[in-house]
Amino acid sequence: SLRKELEKLELEWKKLEEEWKKIGLKEELLSVEEEKEKEKKEDESREDESVLSYKPTLKGPIKFTDKIRLLAYPGAFDVIKLMDGNHTVKEISTSLGKKPEDIIKLVSELRKSGYIAD
After folding, report:
1. I want to staple 110 with a disulfide (CB 3.0 to 4.6 A). Which of 25, 44, 69, 115 is the partner?
2. Looking at 31, 52, 73, which one is the last position of a domain?
3. Domain check: are 36 and 71 in the same one?
């Protein structure tokens, strides 16, 4: 009877050890996921920083039809005046009091249209 109780306890102990291993694996998986997420955010941050430090330069005058299309971007022409290769996206954003995202969208649109030198 005592032997049976010991066997039951050993069996229970083994089950508990297995559960602990599973929990440990789950925690490891979670920490791996957290690490991947952290790396992704760091990459995005570096990418954002490189975009903000970009100094857009216009290749030449903007065509009339494209000027009409740019009316969709409030203050686009103020931004364009500062795209002289001397101002970063961040500086343009700060000096005009606009969100960097708005400046980036405009720069992207102008790049697609071939107006900004890479």
Report:
1. 115
2. 52
3. no
Which position has the higher pLDDT, 106 or 118?
106
Same domain, 42 and 73: no
How far is Cα 1 from Cα 106, in angstroms, rounded to an integer?
82
List, for residues 24-57, the tens digit of each pLDDT value.
767 776 777 777 888 777 766 666 677 888 898 8
Tokens of 63: 């065509």
Residues 41 and 7 in one domain: yes
Cα(43)–Cα(21) distance, integer angstroms: 33
